[in-house]
Amino acid sequence: MTTVRLGSESIPFDVDEFSQKLGETSIKVVVPRDHLPEVLKRALDFISFGIYVYTIVVIPAPNPTLDSFVVQMDRIDFNDRLKGWVPFGQGREPPAASP
Q1: Which of 10, 15, 36, 68 has the greatest CB tally within 10 Å of its CB?
Q2: For the chain, which residues make up each domain, given as ranges?
């Protein structure tokens, strides 16, 4: 486990703990720069199964040293009618009503 410094605050970070969050609807973590490639690799490996798909946004953490990044992941679904990805829960079409 390593720590991320945000101003005077230290936040613990563990790649394995991050991996355990995969499958949640929304994930937001502060990742040390050295761990960012592994975090993205694990997220993409998880997505490649095709069960859970996420948008992934990476921005610098609020410090001037660029030694950590905020990774925000939100689940999405494919909407057949719209032929595109939509926020989780909005992609499933309700079953057609029986006559």
Answers
A1: 68
A2: 2-85
